[in-house]
Write a structure and sequence with these properties.
The chain is mainly beta. The chain is 14% helix and 42% strand. The chain has one domain. A hairpin with a 2-residue loop joins strand 3 and strand 4.
Length: 301
């Protein structure tokens, strides 16, 4: 994961200490010691600062440049950047943590509209926590794209990272609902192609998954907080592809992929860890093709 600046590292040490020492009384969500709203929301700017300085990488960054202005006229591929990835006929949601005791948080983004009159990308989906499903809608607003230059030579000596803010509002009519808000970051490709048939140029921003097999891979990260409509209480919320930023010293103890520390595994993580929430799927010839979720909880109201 990213190597933080000294300033960011000090802020993260304080935040992570607060996260790691939270204890739930009788396992009830409302009794979990919560961050103040200021403390919870501090996760988002700290993450944004880290991404702007070091990106989503372990490599030493020699220089970072804002290239946002060079991407005028590009379209953003919402399916790869925002929607839950499809594994065959079904999709698998992203996993993460919510609250100071790291309850499992699963997020499924089912649909998007690339832009509206305000420049926001409309997002539709559902979240699942404490075995309850909450449908939401909201927006992602792209702020900038940073190009990081690393030590060494070759094609891997530079990488582009998209930085955005998000706000996803759950249905306020459902008890226990609230709002997710924070910073989103993803490693991206900027593709330019020429169509010789109609003499047009296509400019598109897509997700860069070149490093998805590396041991510490993480991408499409959402870092921020969830705030209750009813009480105004905020809880830290982090989710994304594979590993989770800020958690490797206390929650995520896996060598190659995300593995929760033993003290957190009872907080709805059982089905994720033992693989029981997935089932194989096969093609029409009976050959195994991959995995899918048994329970499409995001489709249920």
């Amino acid at each position: 994961m990213a190597v933080f600046s000294k300033k960011t590292a000090k802020r993260m040490l304080l935040l992570c200490t607060m996260l790691a020492t939270g204890i739930a009384a009788n396992g009830q969500e409302e009794n979990i010691p919560a961050f103040s709203k200021i403390e919870a929301e501090a996760l988002a700017p700290a993450f944004r600062e880290s991404v702007e300085q070091e990106g989503l990488t372990q490599r030493e960054v020699l220089k970072s440049t804002d290239i946002s202005q060079t991407l005028k006229g590009f379209t953003f591929d919402g399916k790869s950047l925002f929607s839950s990835f499809t594994e065959g006929p079904k999709a698998i949601p992203q996993d993460g943590i919510i609250s100071t005791v790291c309850r499992l948080l699963s997020i499924y983004i089912s649909d998007y509209q690339t832009s509206d009159a305000t420049g926001a990308i409309r997002i539709y989906g559902a979240s699942r926590r404490a075995r309850q499903t909450y449908h939401f809608e909201g927006e992602i607003r792209i702020k900038k794209v940073i190009r990081h230059y690393f030590g060494g030579m070759g094609a891997d000596s530079a990488s582009n990272v998209l930085i955005a803010t998000y706000q996803f509002r759950e249905d306020p009519q459902k008890e226990g609902s609230g709002v997710y808000s924070g910073t989103y970051a993803a490693q991206i490709n900027t593709d330019i192609s020429y169509n010789y048939l109609d003499n047009t140029i296509k400019r598109e921003v897509t997700l860069d998954r070149r490093e998805n097999s590396s041991p510490y891979y993480y991408n499409r990260c959402f870092v921020g907080c969830w705030t209750s409509y009813a009480t105004g209480v905020s809880l830290p919320a982090i989710w994304g592809d594979d590993r989770l930023p800020f958690t490797s010293q206390w929650f995520d103890v896996g060598n190659e992929h995300l593995v929760p520390a033993e003290e957190y595994t009872d907080n709805e993580w059982e089905e994720v860890l033992n693989g029981s929430r997935l089932e194989p799927y096969y093609n029409e010839d009976g050959e195994p093709m991959g995995w899918r979720c048994k329970d499409e909880w995001w489709t249920k109201y």
